[in-house]
Each structure stands twice: as structure tokens, then as C-alpha cells.
Inverse folding.
């Protein structure tokens, strides 16, 4: 089993050369696109953590049909936004708090989360957003 994973990773690294994006494509052709520059993917259960030059994101693997390297980004498809779902995995939980803290600490750019990090909608990510997110999780907002 480890050998197959190693071969897949070597294949990904080899095939990434010359492409701008790695697309996670769902069965309905929607999905997520990531800059291929410096990309690294870690699979953990039903999610993948994608690290690239643009930052770090978590991608739920449910509904993903295939991965592709491409010169073009998938068309932006509007999806319902769940307030507090910073990492976009469809759940508001401690992982979203961690994502916000990474933005505050400068580990991840706020742009990585496409506006979802601005919980209190003041276009600044700070402790007030963390407090608002915790209130959402606790059900007090």
C-alpha cells in the first residue's frame, strides 16, 4: 500500500510541471482549484489538506470525482455559505477556529478563505472574529 502512495505522489509531482492549477473536480463539474506552485497534499480520512504558494486549505473529499492538473482554474461556482465555516468544509467547528488563528498569526493569508474569515464582516481578521466564531459554535449568536 505504501508503494502505491509513493508512486502516486511521484506521479503528481512529475505531472504538475507546466500547469498552473490542481483542480479537485466533483461529479457535477464544480469543485476547488489550487495554485499548483509548490503544492503538497495530505489525505486524512475524508479530507485533504492542500498546501501551496497561496496558503493552506482543507477539502472534503466526498463527492470528488477526480483530480486534474490544468492551465485553467475551475469556474467559480457559487455555493451556499455557512456563516463561520472558514475552511469551507461545510461544518462550523474547532477547525474553523484554528484557520482563523492561522490568519491572525500570519501563517495563512485571509484571501485563502475567500472572505469567509471575516466573521463579523468588518474586513479585518482579529480576535473579534474568533469571539464571534466561538459564539456561533456555542449557539449563542
Amino acid at each position: 500500500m505504501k508503494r502505491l502512495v509513493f508512486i502516486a505522489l511521484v506521479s503528481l509531482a512529475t505531472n504538475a510541471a507546466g500547469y498552473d492549477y490542481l483542480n479537485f473536480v466533483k461529479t457535477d463539474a464544480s469543485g476547488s482549484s489550487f495554485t499548483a506552485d509548490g503544492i503538497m497534499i495530505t489525505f486524512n480520512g475524508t479530507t485533504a489538506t492542500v498546501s501551496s504558494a497561496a496558503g493552506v486549505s482543507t477539502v472534503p473529499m466526498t463527492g470528488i470525482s477526480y483530480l486534474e492538473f490544468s492551465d485553467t482554474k475551475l469556474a467559480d461556482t457559487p455555493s451556499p455559505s455557512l456563516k463561520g465555516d472558514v475552511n469551507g468544509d461545510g461544518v462550523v467547528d474547532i477547525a474553523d477556529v484554528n484557520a482563523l488563528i492561522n490568519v491572525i498569526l500570519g501563517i495563512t493569508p485571509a484571501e485563502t478563505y475567500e472572505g469567509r474569515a471575516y466573521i463579523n464582516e468588518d474586513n479585518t481578521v482579529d480576535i473579534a472574529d474568533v469571539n464571534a466564531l466561538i459564539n456561533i459554535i456555542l449557539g449563542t449568536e
In short: Strands lie at 21-26, 31-35, 40-44, 47-52, 55-60, 64-70.
